[in-house]
Design a protein that fits this description.
5 strands; binds tetrahydrodeoxyuridine; alpha+beta
Length: 135
């Protein structure tokens, strides 16, 4: 159960992370923050590259930071941008890998919650581990 207070805290982490975005090409800063079921928060930012396709999105940076610390269960992920942009398809797929019930909070840079979805809502009929085991 995600309390309003935790929503607020998670969004604030995402907003604060925006300052570290490395986005010299798009000038579109993204901050993300993941709340694990153990109560920890991992943040992330988009990291661009002069070889454009190498850019990594904020959501995946935050998720990979968490996973690389042994965390694989996520309550919620907050994403902050200047205009409330929603996660790209690749990030949705990576989120789905770790659970389709995870809440995704979309906020702007002022910390205003604009939308709230589950991963399942953002990526219906997603491909997952089970598909690999069915004939
Ligand atoms: N970006 C993210 O960080 N997350 C998304 O889900 C969408 C896009 C970043 C990638 C790139 O640095 C910039 O936003 C513009 O696409």
């Amino acid at each position: 159960m995600l309390t309003d207070e935790m929503r607020e805290t998670l969004i604030q982490h995402a907003v604060q992370a925006m300052q570290w975005a490395y986005a010299p090409y798009s000038n579109y800063s993204v901050g993300a923050a993941v709340l694990t079921s153990s109560g920890k928060i991992y943040d992330g930012v988009n990291v661009e590259n002069a070889v454009f396709p190498l850019t990594l999105c904020a959501e995946r940076v935050a998720i990979f930071k968490a996973v690389s610390q042994g965390e694989k269960e996520f309550e919620a992920i907050a994403v902050a941008t200047r205009n409330g942009g929603t996660p790209c398809g690749s990030c949705r797929q990576v989120m789905a890998e770790f659970g389709t019930d995870t809440l995704v909070l979309i906020a702007n840079q002022d910390g205003k919650l604009l939308h709230e979805y589950t991963v399942a809502e953002l990526l219906p009929e997603s491909f997952g581990e089970d598909d690999l085991h069915q004939s």
